[in-house]
Amino acid sequence: MTAPARAGQLRRPSPRLLAPPGVYAPQYDTALLIRALSEEQVGENTEVLDLGTGTGALALAAARRGARVTAVDLSWRAVWTARLNARIDRTPITVRHGDLGSAVAPGSFDLIVSNPPYVPAPSRLPPRHGAAQAWDGGLDGRIVVDRVCDAAARALRPGGTLLMVHSGLCDASASLVRLADRGMGAAVTDGISVPFGPVIRARRAWLCARGLLDDDATHEELVVIRAELL
To answer: What is the rounded distance in angstroms from the CA atom of residue 90 to the CA atom of residue 64?
Structure first.
């Protein structure tokens, strides 16, 4: 269940962002989510939460539009990177160390953005250390994606919005069902097909064996899911 890819170039995150080893560098999925964010009504009274902030690219994109932004990441390296990028950008954001929505009060936000780890991986559980924390999502790619759906339903105010990006490899329709079960109206609103990156190429044979990839596939579909708390 996907939206057709839209015309128009994706706006790349700022090249000034630092992305040290172990912190996810902004890529196509980041740019796709920034494009979705640009279409939301965001201003000085908007409370925004960035779940799994990484470099802080999404948090900074929202803060530049005047929003009050809280960014959360489980990795201390990502926390310090996002804080440093905010200082370099001279854009104020609050960056906290924490596990998804556990670091914030329920019903506190108007908008949540998230680019969670979503690549299916041979390990049943996501890694606890190392760079793969930023992309490995367990056998079906949904361990963190599901938790983002749950956290959003808790952290949003009524009428609040979730914008989440993930791969078609981890089943967009499952995300829509999970969000609906938690009182949110959800739809796939954008998508793009991109060449396989190094992670997908490295585990291509395993993904094909599990039936998640066709043998002749060369591109990965990325989708944006937009959900509103009813």
So the answer is: 10
Report which DSSP code applies to 161.
E
- 197: in domain: no
Which CATH number covers residue 129?
A: 3.40.50.150
Cα–Cα dist 145/126, whole Å = 12
Beta carbons within 10 angstroms of residue 80's beta carbon? 16
How far is 92 from 218, CA to CA, in rounded Å? 40
Domain that holds residue 127: 28-192+222-229
Domain count, the chain: 1
CA–centroid distance for 42 within its chain: 18
Please report whether residue 212 resides in a domain.
no
Tokens linked to 87: 């200082």
Within 10 angstroms of residue 14's Cβ, the number of other Cβ atoms is: 15
Cα–Cα distance list, 138 to 64, 115, 195 (Å): 34, 16, 22
Q: Is residue 92 part of a domain?
A: yes
Q: Which amino acid would we find at residue 152?
A: A
pTM: 0.93
Up-side HSE of residue 32: CA atoms within 13 Å toward CB? Answer: 27
Which tens digit of pLDDT belongs to each residue from 58-104?
999 999 999 999 999 999 999 999 999 999 999 999 999 998 767 68
